[in-house]
Amino acid sequence: MAQDRITNKLHSRKFTRNMVLIVILVSFIPMLLVSGMVLHQFSNSYNEKLYAHLKEMIHRHAQDIDSFLNERLHNLQFMLDSCDNVDLFNESVLQEKLFQLQQKYGDVFEDLGIINEKGVQESYAGRLKLENAQYSKAKWFEDALKKPFYISDVFLGLRSKPHFIISVKRVYQGKYFMLRSTINFEAFNFLAENLRIGNTGFAFILNREGNFQTKLHDDMLPSKKSYMDFISAGKKAKHGIYIGELTDDSDGKHIIYLAALLKNNDWILVYQQEKKEAFSDLIRTQIIAGVILFIGALLIVIMLSFLFHQIIKHLSEADREKEMMNRQIIETGKLASVGRLAAGTAHEINNPVAIMVQEAGWIEDLLKKEEFQEGENLQEIERALKQINTQGKRCKEITHKLLSFARKTDTQIQSVQVNKIVEEVVGISDKKSYTGITINSYKDQTIPPIAGSQTEIQQILLNLINNAIDAIGKKGGKIDITTRLEERFVLIVVEDDGSGIPQANQDRIFDPFFTTKAVGKGNGLGLSICFGIVKRMGGEIDVHSTIDIGTRFDIRLPRNKT
Amino acid sequence: MSAPFIMLVDDEITFVETLAKRLAERNIETITAFNAEEGLEKLKNNKNLEVIVLDIKMPGMDGIEALEELKKVSPLIEVIMLTGNATIESAINAMKLGAYDFIMKPFDIEELVCKVGAATNKKREHAEKIKDAQKQETLSKYGPFRYV
User: Fold this and answer.
1) DSSP A512-552
2) A410-558: CATH class
3) pTM, two decimal places
4) pLDDT tens per residue, range A399-418
5) What are the boundaries of each domain within chain A?
6) Which ipTM value was assigned to this complex?
7) Which residue of A has its CA nearest to B89?
8) Per-residue pLDDT reduced to its tens digit, A65-99
9) Does residue A222 have a cis bond before it (omega within 30 degrees)?
10) Contact B84 A344 (CB under 8 A)
11) Which of A49, A95, A318, A381 could covalently link to A125 via disulfide, CB atoms 3.0 to 4.6 Å apart?
């Protein structure tokens, strides 16, 4: 039995686990697919929006920088176009022009200079003393000579400070000269520097050689990539912007970048940001979604486990009840069979017993006659005859009890007071004065009358009390009889502190002819009769027993329907 | 008072014979029959029978049917049904049909003697009442001072 329970428990666990797994699979797969798709769509959408925003920003900044450079170039071209060339060689005029430019554009223009074709600065306006400065060897000058206008890369030059030059070439009296201006690096650098997003998003400008054209910060050194690397590794998008990703060799961080060409493709404006930061909102959303999904899944699993556990519990209970009901049906069936058997045979048994008793009685009658009064063994014969009579009566009692199973209509159903019956039975039992046994009754006075047979209920109680007395034995003890009103039943509890019933016997005590009493003391029918009576009344009888602690019988008799 | 005159009807021959002898020892005049049909016949031939002890379960006509027939032959006869436990319902049923009492096998002879005595008394009282009633009827019909 215990093994069955363990096997059932294992089966239940396996069943619960399988059911939970199936439900999880069935519900989670679509949920995960939908969640995955939604998240994927959201990621794509977020990517597109982010890149679109960044592209727009880079494009605008590239335009701003190009505009800045073109405007400065146009400023110089306009100056050349609007002045007499001779005047420009006059330093005071040049100073005047510089003053006008600085008035209009602030410190963007640091100085102005006119350089002849040999690279000698013939005229100069600015803070430094660069009159007659020699630029013939300067790279920018060599490059500038080749073009009608020129914007140099950023370099340190004579002033050892980063700056760059814008120059416009003209011909005067058959000779080239060029108007040159040094552009304030800070003013230019600001255009790229103000493109900052978060902690890791910043912009810089590279020339074709891969040299930085903007100021660098120590804490955010961009990856060392050349101009061409950005173009070749990136994907070209709208407005000539290149988009790509790279890994920082130093710390392995993933970086996204967007690059736009500047200054007729001489420079490249690069915006870079750590991917983790650029997509932080998306990552946060993904984490939140993941956490919600996980918690949801966890809750579902817990709920499912709980629900299946409950279902299994209910099913097990239902199974137990069913099993109990089956056992009761079998029990009732057994009783019915015994009843039929008893009814069929009792008459046949009683007839021969009646003959035996009559014959014995006849011998007794004859013995009373005078001629037998002198017999040697008269007393012994009388004792034997008395014994035949006694045993005949015992047979009669046994068949009478057997017939209690078959008896159906000879009991009078009437309105009976359970408490009154208890009182009577306790009264009868007390009168028998069992040594050391106290019988107590605790009655619920609210119990209404029920429909039943007084003698049958008496029989139940007497049987149970007799059993309790046998269980207590000579050591003494107590028997408590309690009545209580329940929703559908009147409960009678007969409880003793006797020797108890072994677990192995508890399933069999209601079986007919099952007894643990000594031969001649019990016929094994008492509890079967109780069971039969209670069942016929539509009630229930249960036993709870522990060895050496005692036994409790709960009898539930149905209340009258109101 | 004269001894009761009874008839025992039961298919258990040994039982009936022994019981008859024991009753005779107790001053009860007894005749026996071993089935219902024989009982009926003997009743017709012994109009002065007072009590019949009749077994319920018998082959052929059973005790209940026999009771009805016996009552038809002699409405005043008192019948004590003899039964094993199995037919106790039948015994109760029999009492509803006019049986005086029932007794369950095996029984103490004194119990039966007691019941037979009571039944005989009842029968005799009944007979006495009828006789008185008939006398009254005769008196009322012909008057007390009519001489022929």
Assistant:
1) TT---SPTTT--S-HHHHHHHHHHHTT-EEEEEEETTTEEE
2) alpha beta
3) 0.48
4) 776 665 555 434 567 888 99
5) 410-558
6) 0.82
7) A410
8) 899 889 999 998 888 888 877 777 888 888 888 99
9) no
10) no
11) A95
